[in-house]
Prior knowledge:
2% strand; disordered N terminus
Amino acid sequence: MMxxxxxxxxxxxxxxxxxxxxxxxxxxxxxxxNAIVCGLEFCASAGFTYIPPMLLKAGVEERYMSIILxxxxxxxxxxxxxxxxxxxxxxxxxxxxxxxxxxxxxLVIVSLVMIPYGEYFGVYAFGDxxxxxxxxxxxLCTGVVILDFASEACLTPCEALLSDACKNTxxxxxxxxxxxxxxxxxxxxxxxxxxxxxxxxxxxxxxxxQEQSAFSxxxxxxxxxxxATLLVAEETSxxxxxxxNDYVNLNGTKTDDNIPLIIEDKSKNGSxxxxxxPERKMDHSVLSDVTSPRSILTILCARCGEMLPETVQNLxxxxxxxxxxxIANFCSWTSLMCFNLFYTDFVAHAVYxxxxxxxxxxxxxxxxxxxxxxxxxxxxxxxITSAIYAYYFIEKLIQSYGTKPVFMFGAISMTLSLMGMLVxxxxxxxxxxxxxxxxxxxxLTTIPFLLVNAYHENKEIYFYDVPSRGPSQYRGxxxxxxxxxxxxxxxxxxxxxxxxxxxxxxxxxxxxICCASVFGVLACYFITDVICSKQQMVALLKK
Length: 543
């Protein structure tokens, strides 16, 4: 009789402080912790391959389609920081992160049912009438918004869960390389599902069509990945972890308003400077004496901020160390998402000279469809490159060359690849360049989260400007991961609002790649300001 293989669950403490690296976590456990990340990605990549054609077939105009596709990221931009902060302070007996992962996963499953079967629900509720068709379109559009929001918002508690699980373990340095690998693997699975012809198979005959078969398969696979992660992660409750009167500041001593900022330079004996932390307050009486427009604007913004509720103020209070990272992350994601969202349309128009508005079965329409199919291969190679680079190379490169050079390499490789597409718009060359953008994708799903982890391991240095004096002011890693993820949502909102107008204004799909190249250059510039070491932060404080 074969021995059964038992995978031990990962016990995740509510919070870990001052512990040595004495816990171990296996690679199999890490892969299972990231299983839901893979599921979310193949749902998003496969779903949004079908969604634009489904919206157009349902009678939704292109101008309204861009609005629908922008609503999900807009909701995420406002709600994900709230979700991240709420998960930091959650007192559920099921843990801090798992309740949010489970709730958002249920929304993903509901949306995967609504999108392909909205028309059937309409006929069931209203019969075969105009009302049933309108209700089906409403369910389709609502499902699209929910899928877009929930599939991305769910990543924030997943990232926080991974950080909690790997803190003070032997895998804390490479936990997000597994995360990046699983996201890329999910993209590969999603694009493969859409590439298969389900209509002629027994599965397609049972479910009634290509889209229905693909979405039904996505539901089954996603539920498997969801339960794999939720069962392997055993979070402990933090209900009794903290006492409201026992809050300390970030260097472990009782908080005192009157402690000045002192930086002692002990570089002679090789140790890092020691820092005592103040709580910085803006002196408006001094600022009021300054009459420059910039100072007046600063005062007005500060006064308006003081009028907001305390919870909103906490969300808007961005630590100094996170500002350059957030800006670089926003520019990088804007460049990459501009490529990902519009690459198929670019290839179909610019390379194959097709026309999506041409009559069905006409030569121009067939050229456009062929361009979309060939561009999908480029996106698949993009995911494969990202998966291989994340799993085998990025950790070694960081150890050999440092975090910032690897971050910069991802941005430069993406920018040069995009510029190359403008110079030589041939399908083979363009798809090769598309695969090279996978380096940037692996970088953006790894390095920003590794940096946030590093910041939180040395809070006394990196978060000197963050008060820590009670439940309302506690800032955990979930809030900061949500801030980094907000850059991703904001990039999609920006592209949804302006790219359609920009292409209409210029009359060329080359505007997609030009815009992505510009933001790639900006990303390279702002990455130089990202703080990647204690020495950089100390130098900034001395200024």
